[in-house]
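Quick log. Single chain, no ligands specified.
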Amino acid sequence: MGEPRGGIEVFTARHHEDHAWYYYPAMTSEEVLIWKGYDSDEEPMAPPLHYSFDDPNTPLGAPERESVEVRVFCLLPKS
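-> predicted structure:
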């Protein structure tokens, strides 16, 4: 199979009772959700999992969910 294009590692996860899930049902198109995806000081690295699901409370005819992923690198000097 070889190395993935771009050298990107792909992670999978299995359900565990200690997982914490967060749900933001009232977000508007004026809001954004930001999470830290990588910290070079974390050992071992634990990338955040993100997921989508069908919400049975969504009204009929509601617009489809839209998602944009933007990656930003912040290089900070060691203190």
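The chain has a mean pLDDT of 78.
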